[in-house]
Amino acid sequence: MSARMIDTHHHIFPPRFTTANLQRIVADAGSFPASMYTGWSPRVSIAQMDEAEVQTSIASMTSPGVWFGDNAESRVWARDCNEFGAQMARDFPGRFGMFAAAPLPDTEGSLAEIAYALDVLKLDGIGLLTSYAGRHLGDPGFAPVMDELNRRKAAVFVHPTVSTCCSSTIPGITNPPIEFPTDTTRTITSLIYGGTFARCPDIRFIFSHGGGTMPMLLQRIAGPARRMKPEEARAILPHGIEHAVRRQHYDVASVAINPIAMAAVLKLLPISQLVFGADAPFNSTLQIAAAVKAFELPAADIAAIQRGNAARLFPRFAG
Q1: Rounded distance between C-alpha atoms, residue 268 and residue 211, angstroms
Q2: Rounded to 5 degrees, what are φ and ψ at 124?
Q3: Cα(71)–Cα(83) distance, rounded to whole angstroms?
Q4: pLDDT tens, 276-308?
Q5: How many Å apart are CA 119 and CA 107, to the nearest integer?
Q6: Residue 216 burial (C-beta neighbours within 10 Å; 0-12, 13-18, 19+)
């Protein structure tokens, strides 16, 4: 296993959660069969990882997450999924990490689950969706959660979902192709203008799919800041908008096999901020790995994307 890659975008489907919520999960994705979820197991993941020379996958829950409108229910599912992920990591040492699910928009429940996941289960970070009930991550109501994640200097993996504003807008087209990258851009914008990036500089964000459409839209996103009073702009963007987005991390899931999108990512973002992501099982880990190997970049840069940058974020997998 020469490359020994670290995959930061790898989804799991804990059996109890998946069985109980299968209709919700299938409806959210739109175009994948139920058997993909019910047939998943850690060994299925490992087989895909071995084929693509991935040493470690840091697992996460995908959209629709664990919150379906009832806080008590969401706390149960977050705990169930996180304990499953922690046990999976114990059962297969060195092969899996876990970004813990948090039951946002339940702030109190999320703070409790963050403490349990990081202090008791010793998971590797927190997994969040781009929005909850139409509220993006820069929403003031989420400030207590962000402040706690900042205090802990936590790694936070942000996966897209479909905002309540924009479901099924084009007949015959499922939501993820357009709404997932768009909602990533919305949440990055909310973290800028809500002041979270400035207030919480120690959160180690990882955004999915190269930041969605953000690299292509950055100058338009910067427009409101240009029209602010200088002191107001400095409060949320003390070093400018490009600095704010360039210091975050981004995985190359999806964009690695799209040369046009990848060109935009490489034009805007430093190599040091890019990490390997396969988006398994929705994408082919082998295909994404082959695309990264074929990047027209120096070997050291490719190695940094494959492993080095993630090893810096998660030192326990560096050995």
Answers
A1: 11
A2: -90, -10
A3: 18
A4: 999 999 989 999 999 999 999 999 999 999 999
A5: 18
A6: middle
Q: Give the model confidence (pLDDT) of 65-91 as tens digits.
A: 999 999 999 999 999 999 999 999 999
Domain spanning 5-317: which CATH class is it, in words?
alpha beta
pLDDT, tens digit, for every residue of 139-184?
A: 999 999 999 999 999 999 999 998 888 877 888 888 888 889 999 9
Which residue in the block uniquely carries the two structure tokens 């979270």?
196
Tokens coding 85: 């992920």
- Distance CA(160)–CA(243), nearest Å, equals 22
SS3 per residue for the chain: CCCCEEEEEEECCCHHHHHHCHHHHHHHHCCCCHHHHHCCCHHHHHHHHHHHCEEEEEEECCCCCCCCCCHHHHHHHHHHHHHHHHHHHHHCCCCEEEEEECCCCCHHHHHHHHHHHHHHCCCCEEEEECEECCEECCCHHHHHHHHHHHHCCCEEEEECCCCCCCCCCCCCCCCHHHHHHHHHHHHHHHHHHCCHHHHCCCCEEEECHHHCCHHHHHHHHCHHHHCCCHHHHHHHCCCCHHHHHHCCEEECCCHHHCHHHHHHHHHHCCHHHEECCCCECCCCHHHHHHHHHCCCCCHHHHHHHHHHHHHHHCHHHCC
| pTM of the complete model beyond 0.90 | yes
Where do we find the tokens 């109190």?
108
Tokens representing 310?
Answer: 């993630």
**What does the pLDDT look like over 191-238, one tens digit per residue?**
999 999 999 999 999 999 999 999 999 999 999 999 999 999 999 999
